[in-house]
Structures are given as C-alpha cells and as structure tokens.
Write a structure and sequence with these properties.
binds calcium ion, about 20% strand, about 270 residues, binds ligand C2E, globular, eight-stranded mixed β-barrel, alpha/beta, 11 helices, Diguanylate cyclase (GGDEF)-like protein
Length: about 270
Amino acid sequence: KKKQRGGAVLFDSDHEYQINFEAKIESALKQADLENELSVVFQPIIDVRGPQTIGFEALARWDSPQLGKISPACFIPIAERAGIVGSLTKPLLWKALAAASLWGPSLRLSFNLSAHDLNSNDSVLMLVGIIQRSGFDPKRLDLEITETAFAHDFEQVTQSVETLRRLGCGISLDDFGTGYSSLTRLHALPLTKFKIDRSFVKDLHLRPSSYKIVKSLLALSADMGLDCVIEGVETEEELAALTALGGTSVQGYLFAPPLLEHEAAKFAAEPSGA
Ligand code: C2E
Ligand code: CA
Ligand code: CA
Ligand code: CA
C-alpha cells in the first residue's frame, strides 16, 4: 500500500489490487491439488491446573506451488465467498482425524467449520460420513463455529448443528464475544463450549474494559454449565489475570504455537503433558 498517495486514487487502486488479489487466490484454489497442497497443524489446548494438554485445535495451512504459503485468515474467507470451502473442508477434516486417531484416548480434537459446511443437508451428510469412516470417536471431537455462521440461515444451521451434536460431537462457539448474537439465540443452540476471542485477552490486565468482558464471559459460561477456552494467551501477565478470574482452559503462544503433526504427538506425550 502506498499511503502517501491521495484519497480517491488510493482507494481505487487499493480496491482494484484487492479484487485482483482475491481473484488470483480464488483461481489458484480452484486449480489446486488440495489433497497435497493443504495440510493441518495442531495447537495445544491446555488445562492450566495440571498443566495438562486437553487436546489440539486443527488449523489449516496451504502451500501453493504458484503463490507460496497463504494464511487461512486469507484463503478461507475467499473460499467461502467463492462457495468452494466444502472442497477444502473434506481433505482438512480427513487429515485432522487421521492424525488425531494416533493420539492417546484422552486427547480431544477441535476442528473449525465454515457457514457453508452447515448450510445444507448435503454438506452435513458429508461431514458425518467423513467422521464415521475415520473411526475417530465423535465424543472426542469439538466442532468450532462462529456466530457469523448463523447470520445467513439460522434454522438450517441450527438443524445441522443438532445433527452433529446427536452424533456425539461437541459444539464450540468460536470467537465468542465478537459477534452479535442475542443470548436468546445462543440459548437455542446445543453448545458445549465457548472460546473467548484473543481480542479480549490481549493485555487484559492493563485494559479494564477487556478485563470486565472476560470476567462476564467466564461467568456466563459457568452459569450455562459450559466449558470455556481462552484463546491467544501470549504472556505470563495475561495468564495470571485469567487464572485469577477462574479461567482454566487456555490456548496461545505462551504454551505453544500450532505444531506439525509429529511435534503435536510429542508435545502431548511429555511427562507434564504441557
Ligand atoms: P481461529 O479459529 O480463531 O484460530 C486462532 C488463530 O489464532 C490461529 O490463526 C492461531 O494460529 C492463532 N493464534 C494462536 N495462538 C495465538 C497467540 O497466542 N497469539 C496470536 N496473535 N495468535 C494466536 P491461523 O492458524 O492463522 O488461523 C486463522 C483463522 O483461519 C482461524 O481463526 C479460523 O477462523 C480460520 N481457519 C483455520 N483453519 C481452518 C479450517 O480448517 N477451516 C475453517 N473453516 N477455518 C479455518
Ligand atoms: Ca477456531
Ligand atoms: Ca477463535
Ligand atoms: Ca478468529
């Protein structure tokens, strides 16, 4: 971005650049050999009271021969807008379940779903089929969804989530606190877990508003009888403030970044478990 350039020109060229960039990624995704170019890394989720590893969140990685490594924060939304995210979910879920099948029986797997994975019966049947064929116990699987997934078709998405819940899967509300859902709406969903977004965790010991939000989100999850994972913990100061508020499950660079499959297995096998 050339920030020194004038208003309208800057906007137009930035906008054009953005559209070209998206188009490039979309076309590379459509041509990609997804089975080979996509991989999955695993970030530990820790119970600080051990400390002990509870499980891992699967996070997508894409290494494109044309474009190099692209972040999921970039390519997942583009795949969603292009309506092709289902073709990514398939190999990603399959790979994540294959890796997790080799872990000890107490470890859980979290997997991120998009709105498109939940907005038709066919896409849910695809998920159910993959989970069943993998042999992985659905009771050890947490599916992460964001509030934005419900923005489009609340009825259909709720039905899909209920189907997955009946199969035994846990349902985690990801990026909790950043969406606009009313509590009544949330209450209608068969949720098992909240994940508090990193934006409230960053420097919460220095930011009274963040501190209060985390405090009330933890209280709400306790009231609802749900587990709560706190995301993006980077410093000892943040951890101390979170544990003082009663938080127990955390995820973040302070403990570990997302790890390669063989590193994750080793991490979980360490004597302390974290
Ligand atoms: P998310 O689900 O909220 O995942 C958490 C993101 O925070 C991950 O980024 C993770 O690497 C990063 N993170 C973890 N600990 C820390 C920390 O201590 N500090 C900071 N600053 N960041 C931390 P990542 O891997 O780049 O993924 C970005 C987003 O892409 C995810 O956000 C999720 O929305 C999406 N995504 C990733 N994999 C998948 C997937 O397989 N399917 C779908 N539908 N979405 C995915
Ligand atoms: Ca997530
Ligand atoms: Ca999140
Ligand atoms: Ca997020």
